[in-house]
Amino acid sequence: MWRLLRPDAVEVLKDERARSALRRYFAVMEKKLPARFQVCKHVAANVPLSSNTKELWRTHSEGMKEFRDILSKLDSKKLRLENLATPEISLLDLKVELARRILKSCRFCERGCQVNRAAGGKGFCGVGAVSRISSEFMHHGEEPELVPSYTLFFSGCTFKCQYCQNWDISQFPDEGVPVSPASIARLIENAAGDGARNVNFVGGEPTPNLHTILEALKLCRANIPSVWNSNMYLSVESMELLSGTQDIYLSDFKYGNDKCAERYSKVSRYLEIVVRNHRLAFRDAELIIRHLVLPNHVECCTRPVLEWIAENLGPMTRVNIMDQYRACYLADQFEEINRRLTQEEFSKALKIAEEVGLKNVIT
Ligand code: SF4
Predict the structure, then answer these.
(1) pLDDT at residue number 75
(2) What per-residue confidence (pLDDT) applies to 236?
(3) Domain extents for the chain?
(4) Domain 2-362: what homologous superfamily?
(5) How far are the Cα atoms of 8, 27, 172, 198 from residue 246, in angstroms, in the given order?
(6) Partners of 178 in the beta sheet?
(7) Which residues of the chain have pLDDT under 70?
(8) Which residue's alpha carbon is nearest to atom 4 within ligand 1?
(9) To test the ligand 1 pocket, which listed residue (102, 104, 109) has its Cβ within 8 A of the most ligand atoms?
(10) Pocket test for ligand 1, best of 100, 105, 116, 158 (most atoms within 8 A of CB)
(11) Which atom of ligand 1 is found nearest the CA of 122?
């Protein structure tokens, strides 16, 4: 059915630009290579999980070197996953343990609330220790290479975007259904059996649910690419834990300056953090970057975002320039964004992409 609804999702299989930017993702999707999180399960972490946190991080760093080595051998067909032993304690077990410890003084995102969520505390995002999802389904509205995408919408967010289109999910962390890592793992396996091209973790925002997601991946037996669909306001520790578990970072690069970020999403140091995390994500896996063009923000946000991508990540970076802005939630309190985007503004955004040399744009 989705083939009829989204013929572009079929055509993209032959699209050389999409394939060149997402080479490994396509190989995992086509069952030619293992998903990164499955590889993580075969990397030994030679440390008791009761060790002190410093020792766990030291072992994690060694484990990541080993992970990259194994991944490169798997990708060049010098090694097969089936021939690797399953260690008693894996790199993914270690990541789960470290995430559990961070939850006790939460620093999953750069807000760094340091509340003990494991003991019932709640920080800025309002998300508890038990993750909640507002919905999960086979999504047919994502980028063509992702469709059909098995998407889990977690309640709550680390941002407060005043124009959020999913505000009923992002701003109500207590809504939705509590989910365990084991139930998520089973849902992913079923979706993989039903033909999902990937599992897509979104919200709201997946970041406050990092502990749940890592544990779900640990329990998941399906070989399916994992997509981290995020505002990219994660702490460095979270980026390190994510590293080696995600096949695609589907990032949302919203603003070209801190003033707009503060005004519309109530977030500080936006550029510094989001730029840093894009660099880390680019080094770790493959990227699709989304940029929603905001009314009256083509010069202050769209231009610097697209310039930065072209200059730092290269002209073949897969970028989705989006025109579907609607004035939702509290947008009517901001006159300059209280309307739809004009055709002129969107054409200007596309022109900028061309000017800065981006050659792999999805529109
Ligand atoms: S994930 Fe939530 S509680 Fe944790 S640091 Fe971020 S906003 Fe604070």
Answers:
(1) 97
(2) 98
(3) 2-362
(4) Aldolase class I (3.20.20.70)
(5) 24, 14, 26, 11
(6) 132
(7) none
(8) 106
(9) 109
(10) 158
(11) 3
Distance 159 CA to ligand 1 centre (A): 10
- Ligand 1, atom nearest to 114 Cα: 5
pLDDT tens-digit profile of 167-196? 999 999 999 999 999 999 999 999 999 999
Query: What are the φ and ψ backbone dihedral angles of 52, each rounded to 5 degrees?
Result: -70, 160
The token pair at 207 is 């970041």
Long-range contacts of 159-162 (CB under 8 A, 24+ apart): 159/205, 159/231, 159/233, 159/265, 159/266, 159/267, 160/265, 160/266, 160/267, 161/254, 161/264, 161/265, 161/329, 162/263, 162/264, 162/265, 162/266, 162/329, 162/330, 162/331, 162/333, 162/334, 162/337
**From 125, 154, 242, mutation site for ligand 1 pocket: most ligand atoms within 8 A of C-beta:** 125
Atom of ligand 1 nearest to the CA of 112: 5
- Strands 177-178, 198-202: parallel, antiparallel or unpaired by DSSP? unpaired
